[in-house]
Amino acid sequence: MKRPILIHPDPRLKKVCAPVDDLSDALRSLAQDMLSTMYDAPGIGLAAPQIGVMSRLIVLDCVKEDGAAPRPLAMFNPEIIASSDELNTYEEGCLSIPDQYADVTRPAEVDVAWIDENGNAQREHFDGLWATCVQHEIDHLNGKLFIDYLKPLKRQMITRKMVKFKKERARERA
User: Fold this and answer.
1) Which of 44, 45, 81, 126 is the most buried (most CB within 10 A)?
2) How many whole angstroms separate alpha carbon 114 and alpha carbon 75?
3) Position 66 pLDDT exceeds 90
4) Strand, coil or helix: what is 142?
5) Are 95 and 71 in contact (CB under 8 A)?
6) How far is CA 112 from the centre of its chain?
7) Confidence of residue 64 (pLDDT cuts 50, 70, 90)
8) 108 and 82 in contact (C-beta within 8 Å)?
9) Closest Cα to residue 111, out of 88, 91, 135?
10) pLDDT (mean) for 128-156
11) How far apart are CA 139 and CA 83, in angstroms?
12) Which CATH class is domain 11-173?
């Protein structure tokens, strides 16, 4: 089931999420809903707070090559356990901040530990776009948006655009 995505500014996007204590069928179903929502948007990552669920759950699929098999990942309680000194800069966007993009510098490589949908502990090394995406989504779980890495003036400009966007969208729906 596709879920509505919260648009910045929304106070829920700035809150730290609670750990997932027990994997239930409802949480597995939520992960599937999030993947459907992400693919439909379209995006390469989505965090639970972006759909108003304050749990430490992210989904991602950074496979972009034509004809390549998708690789959907659902990560419960993801945690960066190591990151490289080498940095990478990517132009990032966010489904909660539509049509706004900015360069963000992050570690080029990260090791991430998480619990998968079957309750198994996982650990993987990510680089390139995958490393950027997983860091971006984990930031969401900690109440941090990609615009928080920007200079105040640029961040305020994007926030003003989002306020205007939300007002226009509300007017269209009325």
Assistant:
1) 45
2) 6
3) no
4) strand
5) no
6) 15
7) confident
8) no
9) 135
10) 97
11) 14
12) alpha beta
Residues in the chain: 174
**Which residues lie across from 59 on neighbouring strands?**
46, 74
What burial letters (b/e) apply to 53-87, b meaning 16+ CB within 10 Å?
A: bebbbbbbbbeeeeeeeeeebbbbbbeeeebeeee
Dihedral, 125, 85, 58, 112 alpha carbons, nearest 10: 40
Beta bridge partners of 158: none
Residue 8 backbone phi and psi in degrees, to 5: -65, 145
Cα–chain-centroid distance for residue 121?
A: 20
Q: Is 153 exposed, middle or buried (0-12, 13-18, 19+ CB in 10 A)?
A: exposed
Q: Which residue has the tokens 């509505």?
A: 4
Other C-beta atoms within 10 Å of 154: how many? 13
pTM over 0.85: yes
Q: Is 137 tagged catalytic? A: yes
Q: Which two tokens stand for residue 166?
A: 């939300």
Determine the number of helices (DSSP H) and then strands (DSSP E) in the chain.
3, 7
Catalytic residue, candidates 124, 137, 168, 172 = 137
Asked whether residue 143 carries a pLDDT value surpassing 90, the answer given is: yes
